[in-house]
């Protein structure tokens, strides 16, 4: 098990000093999903939700969420992000919307938390925009799919179905 780096010698929380780390190109991909009733999914696909275009708003929210990660996750460093891509896949068979966020930058610390936060905020936005039609939606399976760059190198999730 790795040493817990977010605690100082007194056992108190701290933000890790990354000033001596090499700057590298970093990319992280995260995924998640929101499950809903087929009727709700149809409303999303046909653009009939009262609040507007669900996926367009959720896409912007996911980007904003990734950009604001350090504002809501206490030990995350504020990062200059080079790119953020939010995409959706509608799965009619399982009545869900799959969300994928890719974040990249060139810096001294990774962008995994930004990708995960982007997925979470995008999913929450879909819920918010659809809650008048359904409150039983379930957000889940949020995970890191892959990451590259940095001292720890590359990571690819073994269970690629998530």
Automatic annotation (TrEMBL):
**What does the entry list as the binding residues for substrate?**
75-77, 113-114
Per its UniProt record, what InterPro entries does this chain match? Answer: MoaC, MoaC_bact/euk, MoaC_sf, MoCo_biosynth_MoaA/MoaC, Mopterin_CF_biosynth-C_dom
Top-level division of the source organism's lineage: Bacteria
Q: What is its EC number?
A: 4.6.1.17
Residue positions of the active site: 128
Which keywords has UniProt assigned to this entry? Lyase, Molybdenum cofactor biosynthesis
A Pfam family of this chain:
MoaC
**UniProt pathway:** Cofactor biosynthesis; molybdopterin biosynthesis
Reaction catalysed by this chain?
Answer: (8S)-3',8-cyclo-7,8-dihydroguanosine 5'-triphosphate = cyclic pyranopterin phosphate + diphosphate
Q: Where is the Molybdopterin cofactor biosynthesis C (MoaC) domain?
A: 15-150
Residues spanning the signal sequence? none
The top EC class is lyase
Protein family per UniProt = Belongs to the MoaC family.
The protein's job, in short, is: Catalyzes the conversion of (8S)-3',8-cyclo-7,8-dihydroguanosine 5'-triphosphate to cyclic pyranopterin monophosphate (cPMP).
Q: Which PANTHER family match?
A: CYCLIC PYRANOPTERIN MONOPHOSPHATE SYNTHASE (PTHR22960:SF29), MOLYBDOPTERIN COFACTOR SYNTHESIS PROTEIN A (PTHR22960)
Q: How does it assemble?
A: Homohexamer; trimer of dimers.
Protein name, as recorded: Cyclic pyranopterin monophosphate synthase
Source species? Dehalobacter restrictus (strain DSM 9455 / PER-K23)
> Which lineage is the organism of this entry classified under, starting from the top rank?
Bacteria, Bacillati, Bacillota, Clostridia, Eubacteriales
Q: Which gene encodes it?
A: moaC
